[in-house]
Design a protein that fits this description.
It is globular, with a radius of gyration of 17 Å. 46% of the residues are buried. A seven-stranded parallel beta sheet has the order 3-2-1-4-5-6-7, with helices on both faces. The protein is α/β, with parallel strands linked by helices and 246 residues long. The two termini are 30 Å apart. Strand 1 (10-13), helix 1 (19-30) and strand 2 (34-39) form a beta-alpha-beta unit. It is 46% helix and 15% strand. The structure holds 1,4-dihydronicotinamide adenine dinucleotide. 1,4-dihydronicotinamide adenine dinucleotide binds at residues 15, 17-21, 39-40, 62-64, 89-92, 112, 139, 141, 184, 186-187, 189-192.
Length: 246
Amino acid sequence: MISIDLSGRSALVTGSTRGIGREIAATLAGCGARVAVTGRDQARADEAAASIGNSARAFAADIADSSAVARLVEDVASAFGAIDILVNNAGITRDNLMLRIKDDDWDAVLDANLKGAFAAMRAATRSMMKRRWGRIINITSVVGMTGNKGQANYAASKAGLIGLTKSAAKELASRNILCNAIAPGFIDTDMTADLSAEARQTLSAQIPLERLGTPADIAGLTAFLASEYAGYITGQVFVVDGGMVM
Ligand code: NAI
């Protein structure tokens, strides 16, 4: 029988006050890890950590701010003793046609989705290197592989995250730090809540499994990649999209 045991491990999940990140945090905690729940807002992080229970702790930081990320990593490491598992999940969209994307929209998306993940990896890998164990899981998107009309900034940030994942995997493998990415398709969360019923139907028709995904579809794979079962997997991008992109 296979069961995922993360007891004794500490995890930091960025953007875990809701949606996919919250489900990942709850799943890792359910597997026995101590989990740092994070978001920009302390009260929301407190609420999420309390509802997850299982020794989850709340921390607030804006992931787009590199020095705040460095402080966050320090605070979590000193609360838990270490960070063994880093899940870069925080992300935003500021969709528009390319000609209408303002510099601010470009910077906000790249700063949160790509620079934030890089800052967290740079800060968290120091202690992983010393302990010669670490797992980094970056939540990218199928859009980072296929591109998408109206999402040039978002697609560029998610494609960048794939390049960052593979580079980190090569740099860190000798220290037993594994770095992989998960590329979700359409997942039912607040991020996709604006889709009309009609748009959902059209989308579902393009998905072989004929439904949008759920946060649990992403969280299970994240727990697996954080576990000992994934010890020979690094630098990979796992598409979880109901078969939409093959
Ligand atoms: P969501 O909007 O429901 O949640 C995003 C989380 O990130 C929230 O907790 C939010 O507070 C946090 N966050 C955003 N900016 C932040 C910042 N500057 N600092 C700290 N926290 C910040 O989104 P969802 O759907 O749960 O998405 C999670 C990840 O999955 C994102 O990276 C997203 O790009 C990715 N994804 C989502 C898909 C979907 O269909 N929902 C599809 C493909 C990828």
